[in-house]
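HOLO CASE FILE
Compound: iron/sulfur cluster
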Amino acid sequence: MESYQFDNLTITLNKEGSREFSKVSYPIRYGRYAEIKTPEYIFQYNLKGEIKYIQGRGQGWPHPAEWLKRTVANDWIYYWAGGYSSVYDFFGEHYIPCLSYPSNPISGFNPFEDSAVSSAIEACQELLAQLASLTSGSLSQGLRDFLVLVTESDADTLRLRSHRLHKLIGGRVTVLPPDTRHVDYEVIPIIVADGCLYNCGFCRVKTGQDFSPRAKRDILRQIRELEDFYAQDLRNYNAIFLGHHDALCAGKELLEFAAERAYEVFGFERSNLRGTYLFLFGSVDSLINSEDALFDLLEGLPFSTYINIGLESADTATLAALRKPLSVETVGEAFARMLDINRRHEKIEVTANFVFGGDLPRSHMSSFLDLARNRLDRFYSKGAIYLSPLIDGRTRDKEAKRGMLRRFYEIKTLSPLPTFLYLIQRL
Ligand code: SF4
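Model generated. Tokens follow.
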């Protein structure tokens, strides 16, 4: 770690954050990064010199333990402590990610309406001119290299880089699995299949395409181009997301190919972070139809694997209302398979989503509880259930949202599996 002082700026290179993703109720950073401290802000940069975190230090900042994070897709996310009350119970994390784009938030809090938050993002850009002026002086090579990287990463460049990411994988990731919260959503996306099996009526994240696996050569191309895209910052990653909506349906051979090539090309054994993680979505049919050999293969890979299945409901009337072409019996069969895989495989956790709220039939939540409690005689800590609120970012009815939170808490108390809210996050 090296530190340099210039008037009101303290620049520190090669800072070491935590080597492990942790669930803590204070600001935490991971891997290696650089930092610039001013009297008003702490700006933190990834190893490509791109702004990643901003934390306010002054009076106007909403809370001293809250911060902004910029994703590789160039979205700003505000990490809100939510007054620390029940946040962990609701989300399984100590912070609520508040998104700067429409999603399904249930909190009703929008930090992006606070001028202190927008000023912080502007201040990060204003700092670039001051940093550029420093490069004319005598500097160590390490500091000069860092300043050049930062000043080259202005707002327009960062926006273009996110377009490059989306172009190389073939479009934006409209939704990440809820389990990616375990790595703070820091996943490298590799698309192994497009579209999905059902194209359900209610779904806002679908592409509308029929399911179609990618060719191996396309997967390999993505991996090689992603290696070039993440460049020096690759060492700060240890997780991949195999997309899009039903990678499980792509089958054993393609999953093995993508996971093994990614592990090797991304050099995960040399990551600054411990452990390696693999995330994917699956559907009811792909879970039921996948042979045991596929799960044995995943168990043998050098990853901890999370597979998230969209069950949505165990109630006939609700499935019909959602226009999801599945029967209650097949949903029950998939739920039983999920429990079985979770019992038999140490390194695999299958989790499930159910829709929540909206104008759903009253039988929806009671049928979920019947399904879970008929099959489980006690609480199990593996196999999380995510309840996905059917609301959009424009819903401002605070009383309705409070009612949903109360109802969520009742269900969580009765559920024999860890139960959390699902906040849809894109990449
Ligand atoms: S819920 Fe899943 S299967 Fe249904 S349309 Fe959306 S992505 Fe496709």
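CASE NOTES: The radius of gyration is 22 Å. Residues 355 and 388 are 5 Å apart (CA to CA).
CLOSED: yes
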